[in-house]
Specification:
4 strands, 5% strand, four-stranded antiparallel beta sheet, mainly alpha, elongated, 551 residues
């Protein structure tokens, strides 16, 4: 697959449903919808069970928090697993945990154990399985489908879930009302088995690295560092986190709205959730058309306004029909917002780190959703539902205005894949994979007329090398020979030095060539590789034989 960007037209042309032509993506996507159907039924059952056995508004709102908090806690770790191990196996492990936890919850409900904290605990455990599965599944999208289909595939993930949302809650309400809570929990457990079997059956090719796996600490550090250095990913995460915190009041407080404001039961709750899903499906299907005619920032603003209108409408009316229409508008805004920020993170992440960037994205937005569930639940309990919903509407308008500080960047192609082609330089010592730290120095001769251009390129080079693993990057000028400049950076080990060079893209190599063109020497810039050696008496025996090579 070429790392060269295609034209804007080629990238935007595929329809929302184009990725479904790929059999593996289609199979897992369909199986995921079956699982999502069960999860939505289970959410209705758990939310309604909590509303009937607990008098605390906060406990009801915490059902949403218990299902999102694991992603905040575990996603970064799960993302590092997804980038270092088989993403398919990580998905299988996460799905297995969901099946086991759901089966245990079903058994306890059958035995009559319905303590509120027990319900929250198993909801949390099921969500832990999802937290392991989701980053690996999202990261696998780019491995399974063509690069140009990634935006459509990310949109389909939202469309699929929200399509199921149109029938899942209503079906959950019917099952709970007609057959009882135990039937809903049993059916959910069975639906969780479907993607487990599909993942076991499906296999897809993943580009393997010739280098050994990173340690978990290094993998997490590199993922956090790359994310912190990408303004595009940071903007998407910031807007997503704020949007989740502000908008979750709609879903977190909906059981209370149905019970206290609309005077309905589980069937009414399911029907309103279906209205929310209907709006989401319409927006998802139209997403490709919207992306061609409106900028991503404009779509995000419209999504915030739509959700604010939904929240305000729920606060001011007592009609189920009006509430259903408002929730359809809110659902449209919901899927538009999440599709936009999700696509931004996917396209800005190269394959070697995409699991970690997505996991950090999930961790922070789900942390925002969990915090929002607690905030709006507390406001509803201490003041009123109306106050909480009106506060949510006002916060959503502020999120729309936050585009001035954190605008979503328009991108028409994904981050190019690394070349993964690098011939390690010959060294005079027996360097082991874990030998280090490695110090890299590159000397340039730069004339005064090229100085400004050189500094601009080196600023860009610092960014490029630092985000793929270089540490303590510096640029020094020789006081006695002003034309001589030295670039210096470190990597923890020799393997990390090799890994850094394997992560460079074609564009990064072209940057190196542009820097070399400014070099005034007769020979190319001289690179020196050194290994740091401790001078204390406590140094390890094998380190005492390592000497700095001369050049």
């Amino acid at each position: 697959m070429s790392g060269v960007a295609g034209s804007d037209e080629d990238f935007a042309a595929p329809s929302t449903f184009a990725p479904l032509m790929q059999p593996t993506f289609r199979s897992i996507w369909l199986a995921t919808q079956v699982s999502s159907l069960g999860w939505l039924m289970q959410t209705v059952a758990i939310s309604w069970l909590m509303a009937t056995i607990s008098t605390s508004d906060l406990m009801v709102a915490l059902v949403q928090a218990s299902s999102t908090l694991p992603a905040f806690i575990l996603s970064v770790f799960a993302g590092a697993l997804a980038d270092n191990f088989s993403r398919r196996r990580v998905m299988f492990a996460g799905r297995s945990l969901m099946v086991v936890a759901s089966a245990m919850l079903t058994a306890l409900v059958a035995l009559g154990f319905v303590d509120p904290w027990m319900i929250l605990g198993f909801s949390f455990l099921i969500a832990c399985g999802g937290a392991l599965n989701d980053p690996a599944w999202q990261a696998s999208v780019g491995d399974i489908v063509h690069r140009r289909d990634i935006p459509a595939a990310v949109t389909l993930l939202s469309v699929g879930f929200n399509t199921v949302r149109t029938v899942g809650p209503a079906l959950g309400g019917i099952v709970v009302a007609s057959f009882g809570l135990l039937a809903a929990f049993t059916v959910t457990t069975l639906t969780y088995l479907v993607p487990l079997a599909t993942i076991w059956r499906c296999k897809w090719k993943v580009r393997s690295s010739p280098l050994p796996r990173e340690s978990m600490r290094t993998a997490i550090y590199d993922g956090v560092r790359f994310t912190a250095m990408s303004s595009e990913i940071k903007a998407a995460i910031a807007r997503g986190t704020l949007f989740g915190l502000a908008s979750i009041a709609i879903l977190a407080l909906l059981p209370l709205i149905v019970r206290d404001q609309l005077g309905g039961g589980p069937l009414a709750y399911g029907t309103l959730m279906a209205g929310f899903g209907t709006g989401a499906v319409f927006a998802g299907i139209s997403n490709s058309r919207f992306r061609r005619s409106l900028s991503q920032e404009r779509l995000m603003t419209l999504a915030c306004v739509a959700c604010a209108a939904c929240s305000l409408s729920l606060a001011l009316n007592s009609s189920i029909a009006v509430a259903a229409i408002a929730l359809a508008l809110g659902g449209a805004g919901w899927v538009t917002a999440w599709s936009g920020v999700g696509v931004s993170v996917q396209l800005a992440s190269p394959r070697w780190v995409v699991g970690r960037t997505i996991s950090i994205y999930y961790a922070l937005i789900d942390g925002g959703i969990a915090a929002g569930s607690w905030v709006w639940g507390t406001v509803a309990e201490n003041h009123s539902l109306t106050w909480a919903l009106e506060g949510s509407a006002g916060a959503l308008l502020l999120v729309a205005a936050a585009g001035v500080l954190f605008p979503l960047r328009e991108r028409c192609d994904s981050e190019p894949d690394p070349l993964e082609e690098f011939d390690a330089p010959a060294v005079a010592l027996d360097v082991k994979p874990r030998s280090g730290p490695i110090v890299v120095k590159v000397e340039y001769l730069i004339s005064e007329k090229n100085l400004e251009a050189f500094l601009d390129l080196m600023s860009e080079r610092r960014h490029v090398h630092s985000r793929v693993g270089a540490r303590q990057w510096t640029l020094q000028r020789n006081l006695q020979k002003p034309m001589q400049w030295t670039e210096t950076f470190r990597t923890p080990t020799w393997t990390d030095y090799l890994r850094l060079n394997h992560r460079l893209t074609t564009a990064d190599k072209q940057l190196d060539e542009r820097v070399c063109q400014l070099h005034a020497g007769e020979h190319p810039p001289q690179m020196t590789l050194s290994i740091e050696r401790p001078t204390s008496s406590a140094r390890k025996p094998e380190q005492s034989v390592l000497h700095v090579p001369r050049h």
